[in-house]
Specification:
Layout lengths: L7 H36 L1 H12 E6 L6 E2 L5 E13 L7 H9 L6 H13 L6 E7 L1 H11 L5 E11 L6 H4 L2 E2 L3 H8 L6 H4 L6 E2 L2 H5 L1 H5 L3 E7 L5 E10 L7 E3 L3 H11 L4 E7 L5 E7 L5 H4 L4 H9 L8 H4 L9 H10 L8 E3 L2 E4 L2 E4 L5 E3 L1 H6 L3 H11 L1 H10 L22 H10 L12 H8 L9 H13 L9 E4 L2 E2 L13 H16 L20 E7 L4 H4 L12 E8 L6 E7 L5 H19 L1 H8 L4 H13 L19
Parallel strand pairs: 2-10
Antiparallel strand pairs: 1-8, 2-3, 3-4, 3-5, 6-7, 8-9, 10-17, 11-12, 11-21, 13-16, 14-15, 17-18, 19-20, 20-21
């Protein structure tokens, strides 16, 4: 066979053109390939290096240890404890249900647990691990650790859980932490410094109440990350320590509260319901603030079962409510010092006598007193808690003047800068308030908006529209004892090592010292003279140098005609018992307010609790302790006695008095 070229030159030209075309295409391909390689290796080399490292390494969020909460002496109130847990890395698992089935052979799962795990997996990002079981015993954790390596995506490790070391003693003030909910997540995610991975981490907890909530960002800290090397299947084969970032722990917060006094207050309440607040009258430091009954905040850290929560929420004594700031009560006779200061401001002589026959007639209504006290002046009206005296005098001062002095002493207001939320202002009524409220409220528009004298009688003894919180009552007692400055309460002493300066200049109280001395003399008589409504149950028994001055109160919950008797059978219909005090009487340093919800009478139920709280505070105070153990100082006693004698300690006429005066408040 032979090839014959008819036109040699023509065929050679066609071949040359084809060869040139093919060569051009090859050259273009090589050029394009080289350009792409240059782009990948030179221009985008860093990007793909990172992607390669991402396939080789995983970064896992390390939640930071939450800052501790300490009492004023550095004793631990809230901290962190180790906890064993099991998690599932969903991005390393192909079949979730199969993996959970394998885990269930080691840790049995209920249907509810399985649903919870699957719900959390669906809600979380795939890069965020999901908790299968937490706070395991050592035995369960050991079993899981033994088999976890054979189950892809299952990790057994140690975590930290929030721990509250004194149960319910601090539950309302300190609050608690729990898992972040959907509402909180929406709020947190839009913050400019939000750490999304931390927010979705199964170990993350946020403050839900009290100091834990108010100082959440400070206590929370900054998350870290561990750089883990993985194989092609995503299984961890090691950790790159050099690439890991340690978390930054949260900052500690030191409170003004005293652990011992707080615990003593809870013991004093026992099963009773109510609140106690004690504070330093000069600095405003709150030394004790309890709400009873309480609850164990540890129940909320990992999630409280619905049935357990309902038991707390539905109990009539409301353990979940912070009664110190979130409840208001009629102050009863503890309000009489404010009324007395208004009477003095109106120019009425404190020695003017009022004869008590067991009540006071005003119009068509007879306002009862709890006893028959005979002729009493202002001082003895405090001592015997005679309502009749204040009924007779109050309208000469007027409700607006009473409201003015009540507010000066801290009642009916929320304290700006107080570190926990939930304060209720309560109510101190005056003529303007009634006009505005009765005209503006659809429920009260049919009622008379004019203020009537009979309403002032109820206000004068802390009843009627008057409502205050236990915190306000403590401030009220502190300002009476201080006598110069409108001191305000606070709870936080230090953040980290930085001492919080609360020594700002408080506003002047603006009440004449002479008037305050008269009122304080009456309070001294209540707790220290025979016949005083608080004498029996408020003695500290710390020697003649250390005495307290107080005022008892019994606040009516409902009309006695409706209850049938002052001592109602049902707990919810019983009167509230109150007691406010300060001490030592001659050189005041601490003030205390106690409210016993439905506690019948303040002298018998609230005063003993205040006595226990104040007594321990006096014993623990180094300066006062010297006076307790030292020689009797007649000079110090003389100042208190002279103040009481000058106000009329022994000048109560016997005329008209029964053989035994009823105890009243």
């Amino acid at each position: 066979m032979s090839i014959v070229f008819n036109d040699i030159n023509k065929s050679q030209g066609v071949f040359t053109r084809r060869a040139f075309l093919m060569g051009g295409l090859v050259a273009f391909g090589l050029f394009a390939l080289g350009g792409r390689l240059a782009q990948l290796q030179i221009l985008q080399g860093g990007k793909y290096t990172k992607m390669s490292a991402g396939n080789q390494f995983n970064f896992r969020v390390i939640p930071p240890p939450r800052g501790d909460i300490l009492d004023r002496n550095g004793k631990m109130i809230a901290g962190n404890r180790p906890s064993f847990r099991v998690m599932i890395e969903t991005n390393e698992v192909k079949d979730i249900n199969s993996t959970l089935d394998q885990v269930s052979y080691i840790l049995p799962q209920t249907v509810a647990m399985r649903r919870r795990i699957l719900r959390d997996i669906n809600q979380n990002k795939r890069s965020v691990p999901t908790l299968i079981a937490g706070d395991l015993s050592w035995e369960d954790f050991s079993k899981v650790s033994l088999y976890a390596a054979d189950i892809p995506g299952v990790v057994a490790d140690m975590d930290q859980l929030r721990a509250y070391y004194h149960g319910g003693a601090f539950s309302h003030v300190v609050g608690y932490v729990s898992k972040i909910n959907a509402t909180d997540m929406k709020i947190e995610e839009i913050k400019p410094d939000a750490d999304i991975n931390l927010l979705h981490h199964p170990s993350f907890r946020m403050g839900k109440q009290g100091i834990e909530k108010s100082y959440d960002n400070i206590l929370r800290g900054t998350a870290g990350g561990s750089k883990m090397e993985v194989d092609a299947g995503g299984k961890v084969v090691g950790e790159d320590g050099d690439g890991s970032i340690p978390p930054k722990p949260g900052t500690d917060v030191t409170l003004t509260l005293d652990l011992d006094i707080q615990n003593r207050a809870m013991e004093a309440f026992g099963t009773d319901s109510g609140s106690a607040v004690m504070m330093n009258i000069h600095t405003g430091e709150v030394i004790c603030m309890v709400s009873a009954p309480s609850f164990d905040p540890n129940l909320f850290v990992s999630g409280i079962p619905t049935k357990a929560y309902r038991l707390l929420a539905d109990y009539e004594r409301k353990p979940l409510l912070d009664k110190s700031v979130g409840s208001t009560f009629a102050p009863g006779s503890t309000f009489k010092m404010a009324t007395a200061l208004a009477i003095l401001d109106a120019g009425i002589d404190p020695e003017e006598q009022v004869f008590c026959r067991g009540g006071y007639q005003s119009g068509n209504r007879f306002f009862r007193c709890h006893g028959v006290h005979g002729s009493v002046n202002m001082r003895n009206a405090h001592k015997f808690s005679c309502d009749t005296y204040f009924y007779a005098m109050c309208n000469r001062a007027g409700v607006d003047r009473i409201a003015k002095f009540s507010r000066k002493l801290g009642l009916g207001q929320a304290f700006e800068g107080f570190e926990i939320a939930g304060q209720k202002k309560g109510l101190i009524p005056d003529e303007q308030w009634k006009r505005e409220w009765f005209n503006g409220s659809s429920r009260a528009r049919h009622l008379d908006p004019k203020w009537h004298p009979g309403e002032t009688l109820s206000v004068a003894i802390g009843q009627g529209y008057v409502n205050v919180s236990p915190l306000q009552l403590a401030v009220y007692a502190a300002r009476i004892a201080n006598g110069m400055k409108a001191v305000e309460p606070h709870l936080v002493r230090k953040v980290g090592d930085k001492v919080i300066d609360h020594t700002r200049e408080y506003a002047d109280l603006g009440i004449p010292k002479a008037h305050l001395d008269i009122v304080r003399g009456g309070m001294w008589a209540v707790s220290n003279e025979p016949g005083g409504t608080g004498r029996t149950n408020s003695q500290l028994d710390l020697g003649p140098n250390i005495q307290i001055s107080g005022k008892t109160g019994t606040a009516q919950v409902r009309g006695y005609d409706k209850a049938g008797t002052r001592k109602a059978a049902e707990w919810k219909n019983k009167d509230h018992g109150l007691f406010v005090c300060f001490g030592p009487s001659d050189a005041p340093k601490y003030a205390c307010a106690v409210v016993v919800e439905h506690g019948v009478a303040g002298g018998r139920f609230a005063a003993p609790k205040a006595r226990e709280i104040m007594r321990l505070a006096m014993i623990k105070d180094p300066e006062i302790q010297k006076r307790i153990v030292g020689p009797v100082s007649t000079a110090l006693d003389k100042a208190a006695l002279e103040r009481g004698e000058a106000a009329g300690a022994s000048d109560m006429p016997n005329e008209g008095l029964p053989a035994e005066t009823p105890p009243g408040d």
